[in-house]
TrEMBL record:
Record InterPro entries: LysR_HTH_N, LysR_subst-bd, WH-like_DNA-bd_sf, WH_DNA-bd_sf
A family per Pfam: HTH_1
Family listed: Belongs to the LysR transcriptional regulatory family.
Domain called HTH lysR-type: residue spans: 1-60
Protein name, UniProt field: HTH lysR-type domain-containing protein
Keywords per UniProt: DNA-binding, Transcription, Transcription regulation
Classification lineage: Bacteria, Bacillati, Bacillota, Clostridia, Lachnospirales
Species whose genome carries this gene: Enterocloster alcoholdehydrogenati
Top-level taxon: Bacteria
Amino acid sequence: MKQAEIETFLMIVKTKNITKTAENLFLSQPTVSHRLKCLEEELNVKLLTRKKGYKQIELTAQGEEFVPIAERWLSLWQEMQQLQHGREKLYLSIGCTDTMNTTILFELYRNLLNAPASDINMKITTHYSYEIYGLLENHEIDLGFVYHHLHFKNIVAEPLLKEKMYIVQSGDTKLKKGRIHTDELDPAEEIFVSWEANYQIWHDQWVGKGMRPRVQVDTFELLLHLISDARRWFIAPVSVVERIRDLRDVQVSEIANKTQPPERITYKIRHKYPNESTQKAVQLFEEKMMDYLKTKNWGLII
């Protein structure tokens, strides 16, 4: 088996379409078909089937069984490449959401960089939760942190943090109270962040009441700048609240609604069949991360 054939097969599994596979790999469709044919001939099994009238392809039973084998084969090939290049340091690729990077892990990253003899070379990228699952499934990252628990066959998700939500207003607000009901706030002045699906449901019932927010953002940077206006407010988990309070004068209040918003859960996700070459780096990072999180009051789940 060749590496190109395995990568092509796994891309077909992901896209379920020969045309999209060719586009993603910058190949011609005949090349994709040829690679698949060579792989099937070497294995002496039919991996895929295409029904007439349907653009999407389907895996055969043997194809389903071959997917984890192909992933392990590709992982071993990548490890051999690393061995050939004589890598001595540990390499780790991490995928996170924006607020996970900017409000929770940024200090840990800084500590690791400032360590006298850091053993880990890190590649840190920012994505939406659903994108992180896809990157991890394709072994493009080694470890992920997300706010949505999605069901992927080859991914294990573990709850890491469970954070309480608070109301945040500009420090110039006239409504300075320790506890505030959302009915006391002007929904037209809310800076809305859809933290996760259950929070969205709560918000639609208690705040939005079926109306679309006037402004919705998806980055910490925008929250930081927009909250400068005395009329503005938003709801956020404790880690975001603490970080923004370090950078700007804000009024933080507990939520007085009878039904509280669901706490935001952060999940650590990893692949069922991880690259052996990165396991030491993952373990070392997780140990340092847990030591770091234990110093914070963010609702660590142990």
